[in-house]
Structure formats: structure tokens, C-alpha cells
Amino acid sequence: MAAAAAEWPRPESGHFELFVAKAACKFNAAHFIAHPDGYRERMHGHNYRAEITVKGRQGWALGEDGYLLDFGSVKKALKASCAELDETFLCPAKCAATVVTQLGAEGEVVPLAPGRWDGRGTLRIVVKHDGAEFTMPRSDAIVLPLEQASAELLAWYICCHTLERLGGPAALWAQGAESLRVGVVETEHQEASFTLPLRPGGAVATAGS
Length: 209
Known about the structure:
This protein is α+β, with helices and mostly antiparallel strands. The protein has a single domain, classed as 2-Layer Sandwich (Tetrahydropterin Synthase, Chain A). It is built from three helices and eleven strands. Strands 1, 2, 3, 4, 9, 10 and 11 form a seven-stranded mixed β-sheet that branches. The protein has a four-stranded antiparallel β-sheet with strand order 6-5-7-8, with no helix packed on it. Helix 1 (71-83) crosses helix 2 (151-165). The longest helix has 15 residues, at 151-165. This is 6-pyruvoyltetrahydropterin synthase.
């Protein structure tokens, strides 16, 4: 015989998780991995998908709306993070195996602009060990603060940007979140993820700390 509701464990005895993996949370992009030891992949592309899990803290009581976080807000934030990367070449600015240069409209060297760039100009990438050179319109690439455009580091990048779009770590902690996990799927059954633990007050370790 089923136990009466009064005998069920309280929701606060466990924790809630929210998971979003919508078809709209995707990006199509090109990349290659160049290692300092001399190995370089050929340039290729993936139809990436991203998914996110928000883990709530044990003992956290949901509000009157019964939400941990609103599904719509989480989906909107993740979709925007993916859209930033869509239909681009993923260029890691910190790769030790390449030299990345941005050229202006007249071919002059100009400061490398982070992120996407809608102005005129060219991006030039030279692989150190074999001299392979790639050039493309600057507007076709996104320059990322990464060592490689790997699925693992893309998961970290998307996690950080999605966290910002959700109001930052303090806002999530105040809503009962304990951690944020983002997975990046390159192909079927091939996924990397990054999990960011939150802290009381929302403080997290930063790249500059």
C-alpha cells in the first residue's frame, strides 16, 4: 500500500536539479586543434549542441512558484551563449602552437579584438611547427580566450557566459543553486562538460584570481 503523503520525505531532504537540452541551443562552427608537440588536426566543423544542468542545494525550500529557476530564463541564456558562436571559426587566442594576427582593411597589423568583429579586416593564423597559414575575413571568426577550441574548454566558456546572462553567481546562489554544469556535444555519444561549484554569497574563483 502506498504511503500517505504526510509520510513522504520533505523536498528539503534532498535536492532539485533543472536540465535543459533544447534543439535551439546549438551552434555550427569550425575549428582545429594544434598541439605544441607538432600534431595538428585538419580544419573541420561540428554541429555542436549544448545542455545545462543547475543543481540545487540540499535543504533549499522552493519558493511559492515551485521553481528552482525558470526554464525559460535558462533556455534563453544558453541559447544566446550558443548564438554567439554560431557559424564562426573558433579561434583560441592563447594557443601556444599558433600565432594569431589581425589585419586591418589595408593589410596593416592591428590589435587582436576579442570575440566577434563586424568590421573590415582579416584574421591570420600561422601554425608554428609546420608553417601552415589560415586567413579568413575577421567577421567569420570569433576570438576566444582559450588555449584550444576543444569541447572541454568550450563547455567552460559557455558556462561562464551563461552564468553572466543568468545574473551571475550571487543571483544563482540566492535562488538555491549549488552548481552549474554545461555539456557540449560534438557528435552523438561524444560530449565534454564543465561543472562550476558556487559558493556562499555567490563568489567563484576567476581566471585572474
